[in-house]
Specification:
The protein contains seven helices and nine strands. The protein is an alpha+beta fold.
Length: about 220
């Protein structure tokens, strides 16, 4: 087949169209992921009010990390956040990624200065069963299944006091929204939070957590 014949075949035009589509998808996906990243981290900054902050890229257009340092008088000394995004820029790979990864993910760690009252977890039932985190000390914690908003959650707690404080948070925030896991780990003096980072929702659902931490820690 000559070059002239090649450029007039339907396959050639399909190839050009497909290449254009992939190129469009690449730039659209990069822009979309950047919008999500900026929206999420701006919401965290607004909620935490840090005195210093650092943002780094950890995975091209699919991974970002933030370090937020808070005021000395705050019971939370630092907040680390890592967001991993679906590869929206790669339309060939994203169907596979949506099966494996399912959704964007936001992991937040709060470093606590005072002592936490004990270990406790609020973890959504489906998330716990689908490649969710393994709770290291689950065998020595009490466990309950509760209804939080329109979702089922497992409640793990070390003492009745911790249970009451977890229930207190749920009562004050009747909808879990994008939250799928909150963990209090006293031996590490940390609170871990896992969210599905939807735009315009991170600030709403993360904002109450530092205030709740302030209310339960031992001064």
């Amino acid at each position: 087949m000559t070059m002239n014949n090649l450029v007039t075949t339907p396959v050639f035009y399909l190839f050009i169209a497909f290449s254009f589509l992939l190129g469009f998808g690449y730039f659209w996906g990069r822009r979309r992921n950047k919008q999500i990243f900026l929206s999420v981290f701006n919401a965290l900054v607004e909620a935490a009010r840090p005195v210093d902050q650092t943002f780094t890229t950890i995975g091209g257009v699919v991974g970002y990390h933030a370090n937020l340092h808070l005021k000395k008088e705050s019971p939370v000394s630092r907040i680390d956040a890592t967001i991993t995004l679906l590869p929206r820029h790669s339309w060939l790979y994203i169907p596979i990624s949506m099966i494996i990864m399912r959704y964007d993910r936001l992991f937040i760690t709060l470093y606590i200065r005072p002592t936490l009252p004990g270990e406790g977890h609020i973890i959504e039932k489906v998330y716990a069963g689908f490649r969710g985190p393994k709770i290291k000390n689950a065998d020595r914690l009490q466990k309950e299944l509760i209804r939080w908003g329109n979702l089922n959650f497992y409640l793990y707690y070390e003492t009745v006091k911790v249970r009451d404080q977890l229930i207190q948070y749920i009562d004050r925030n009747p909808q879990p929204g994008i939250i799928r896991h909150i963990a209090l780990i006293p031996e590490q003096k940390k609170c871990f939070v896992f969210m599905i980072p939807r735009r315009e929702e991170v600030g709403k659902y993360f904002g109450p957590i530092p205030r709740w931490i302030s209310s339960i820690v031992k001064k």
